[in-house]
Amino acid sequence: MSKPDAKIPLIDFSKYLHGTSEEKATCVSEIIKGFTTSGFLYLTNSGLSPATAFEWSKQYFALPKSVKEKHPNVIKEANRGYSGMGIEKVTNLDLDTKDEASIAKLRAAVPDLKESLEIGSDAGRYPAKPWQNHYPDTEVPEFGKVMRKFYESCDELHHEVLCAVAEGLGLDKNFFKQYVNAGDHVLRLLHYPAASKEVLTQPGTVRAGSHTDYGTITLLFQDMSGGLQIRTPEGEWQDVEPIEGAIVINSGDMLQIWTNDVIKSTNHRVVSPPSAPTTDDGSFSARYSIAYFAHPDHDRLVNTIETCFDEQRPKKYSPVYPGEWIVNRLTATY
Ligand SMILES: O=C(O)CCC(=O)C(=O)O
Ligand SMILES: [Fe+2]
């Protein structure tokens, strides 16, 4: 169970979208409280439902391996396609050192027990990119249509949340808007297959290893299996229990850099808690989740906001290009 002091606020977003100016202000300060303490919050009444996307995601993961492996996620800059079981080992390494030995050691360690499909933007609403999504529309009819629609709905919601963040930081409401128009976001479908308790309770074995997210915010849709945890400043793991109908939203590296650590990019992971549902043979049941990683445009420089540093609080980060940041992080991850 989560501890009572868990600073993961449950926020009714309809109050921001349609409330009185007082309700709106309360909502903004709750969002800022979540992002500046645990780096996580729950959002309800956002108007966005992941139900259809989950249905199509399940159909995708049920396809034969040979079909999914036709379009592997191998080009870091593209970050599109399928990653099979054990391909990814997420981590936070000190990327300034680019320590090849630690990356190699990490790759040899126990891999994450999951498979995923990464989907990027499509030309049309967004500027064309040199890379394409490969939708399995023959095997799963309308897959591309469903995912494109969901991607765009997530983009819209993410814009609203960033407006609230800007307001909460005392900036112009549209401050982040100029940075997030290229559709450099990533929609990631995740499947953690059923696994025996012997495997998942071995020391060091996790469904997804500890990491921070690289972008501005992540919209995380999880089923009711549980297992998501965040690391508290005291170094303890705290459950982010699923709440029916609530979207988990966490702040990522870009907001942390922009705000000089005022907003947190918190480490999180996925394990199988003892309370996780089990199958008839006593294994942990499969878990499905969908993450929408919102990113600033890859070629727009992100530089710490002027009001977030002064003599007492020196600037901690050099300006970064989001595109370079993500490629460095992905290189250390796969
Ligand atoms: O599956 C989840 O609940 C979390 C996934 C996650 O943190 C990620 O893919 O970055
Ligand atoms: Fe994550």
| Rg measurement, Å | 19 Å
The number of distinct helices, counting runs of at least 4 residues, comes to 9
The share of residues in extended strands comes to 15-25%
The span between the termini is 32 Å
Judged by helices, strands and strand pairing, the structural class is: alpha+beta
Helical proportion, percent range: 25-40%
CATH superfamily descriptor: B-lactam Antibiotic, Isopenicillin N Synthase, Chain
Mean pLDDT: 90
Order of secondary-structure elements: EHHEHHEHEHEHEEEEEHEEH
- Let me know the number of strands: 12
Strand numbers in spatial order across the main sheet: 1-2-10-7-12-5-4-3
Please name the CATH architecture: Sandwich
Number of domains: 1
Sheet having the most strands: 8 strands, mixed
CATH topology: Jelly Rolls
Present as ligands are:
2-oxoglutaric acid, fe (ii) ion
Q: What would you call the shape? A: globular
What does this 3D model show about the protein?
- The chain has 334 residues and is α+β, with helices and mostly antiparallel strands.
- It has a single domain, classed as Sandwich (Jelly Rolls), CATH 2.60.120.330.
- It is 28% helix and 16% strand.
- The chain contains 9 helices and 12 strands.
- The protein has helices spanning 14-18, 21-36, 51-61, 65-68, 100-108, 143-168, 197-200, 253-258, 322-333; strands spanning 10-12, 40-44, 81-83, 115-119, 186-192, 208-211, 217-222, 228-231, 237-239, 247-251, 268-270, 287-293.
- The strands form 2 sheets. The protein has an 8-stranded mixed beta sheet. A 4-stranded antiparallel beta sheet has the order 6-11-8-9, with no helix packed on it.
- A hairpin with a 5-residue loop joins strand 8 (228-231) and strand 9 (237-239).
- Helix 2 (21-36) packs across helix 6 (143-168) and helix 3 packs across helix 6 (143-168).
- The longest helix is centred in the middle third of the chain and has 26 residues, at 143-168.
- Fe (ii) ion binds next to loops.
